User: Fold Thioester reductase (TE) domain-containing protein from Methylobacterium bullatum.
Amino acid sequence: MSRILLTGATGLIGGAVLHRALAMKTDTEWVCLVRASDEEAGRQRIAARLGRFTNALNAQRLAQRVEIVAGDFTHADTIADPRLDAVTQVLHLAADTSWWAQEKVHRTNHDGTLALARRAARMPRLDRFLHVSTAMICGGQPPATVDETRYPDAEAIHLVPYSASKAAAEMSLASHFADLPLVVVRPSIVLGHTTLGARPGSSILWVIRACDRLRLVAGSRDGTVDIVPTDWVADTLVEMLARPALAHRTYHLSAGMLSRTRWSELGRTLDRVDPAESPRHYEEFSARDRATLHRRFTEVFGMDEAIKVAMFRALQAYYRFCELDVTFDNTRLLAEGFAPPPALSEYIGRCIETSGEIVDQFREDFGQFAVGSTPRRDAARPAPALPETMPAREINTRSPSQRRGSISS
Ligand SMILES: NC(=O)c1ccc[n+]([C@@H]2O[C@H](COP(=O)([O-])OP(=O)(O)OC[C@H]3O[C@@H](n4cnc5c(N)ncnc54)[C@H](OP(=O)(O)O)[C@@H]3O)[C@@H](O)[C@H]2O)c1
Assistant:
């Protein structure tokens, strides 16, 4: 029987995984490592996340079916709880997904992941450690198509410390945990849900909608972005855990050549689903052209509130990602018979009809763009005032400790 340790169950993808897995009614046991004062508080946090996918009663019922270990994965190596000893698979989703809190994201995503790996190394029945990284470990200068073998690259220049921390974690896992049954999966951009739209969490839907509202495309109108829906990612992860064997040690969970999103096509789709705004004509600009973006943003959204200033800063950085025009090859996944992802154009209508205002959607995601500490997403919080200019810094993949020739765990 499988006994799966899940980290990140209170997050966007983790909640979707748990909801899918529990709905399947297999005899798999799920153990969730959750930050909470005690088990009951942890269960209530899980139930709240599951409540984004189903009604409150069912969410409570499903949450009763998981075991809770209250704790922080960054200290997993000190968790003596014997319930972890019988784990057969780990699905490690937890991460600090904030972009700019450099030291904190490195401590969590790199050092914390190594702490979890040390605990996993003491699980005698473990046969798979599924580590969820990101396709964005490619940094800011990838080729047009990236396959799984090209990265991580210690010399890659990163647009944000978040992706640098994920790349560093991959490199340290590979070099220090050779005996761990490690499989690395790298989702590209995860956005929306094919049937529930934006309800479980909109992720960067606000970015797509803001680009559309501004009528500005970074780079070329024929450029693409690689986007996949949350439920497809969840299904794929659950199936990867269930398969007795996988052919590779690294996989992209990405749209690939067949399902990637081309801006010009997206504009035509949006003309259909949101005809009040049609016809759309996107202007091309360089993501480094701050003046054009600032002027257009001020005209369309205004710059009269701190939240809009923060949104402008985040959007500037996202435009740099969009301008990369990179596709993450998913041939490995498809060749092993996993279902291909739907294209964004197939479900963006559902996302938009379940969405509120663009600025409010950004507000929901604001924690990701805080410069210092990262408030938890389910905590109600006002947006603090931020400086208007905060350029995306270029970050080298190697952590300070790796540059000194050692790891910091
Ligand atoms: N979403 C995307 O577009 C995307 C794309 C590529 C890769 N990924 C990767 O996919 C994974 C999941 O992403 P997501 O979007 O679901 O993230 P998310 O919504 O930000 O959720 C992050 C999860 O990690 C947990 N966590 C963070 N620090 C923790 C700690 N110290 N101890 C225990 N739990 C901790 C959070 O718990 P709390 O609720 O307690 O904060 C939350 O459950 C991440 O590894 C991310 O890098 C995501």
